[in-house]
Input
Amino acid sequence: MSIFTSRSLEETATFAHKWLEEITSLYPDLDTALVVGLSGHLGAGKTAYVKALARILGIQEDITSPTFVIMKNYDIAHGPWKKVVHIDAYRLEKKEELTALQWDNVISDPQNVILIEWPENVGLTEFKPSADIHFEIKDGVHHIEVR
Output
């Protein structure tokens, strides 16, 4: 477990770059997608982190939270995966609701990195390989904890 303190979007991007290097060295050859849970209160920095990762991976599209559409896909220009799958499970209540998103296909593709906000809402904290990143704001400073 490590905790990173961020006082700016640039510092969050620096952390995202270091995290990306670490996670790709931990899982160089996967036979399923990598699931990354992003938890924390509203406004704690989850989507900002996804934006930083997207820029590092060469995604040029504007990244916005998929709160209403639930899932967005982005093609990766370079990196160990081919697609970022960004899910916002804030409005979901159980894992079965992911079926409508063709979840079995998404999770089985090793070319996907799945970044899911609010993973606890759909029980996605048990997936392996996976990473869990928790975001919190204390005294106006963002704290990012890798669990």
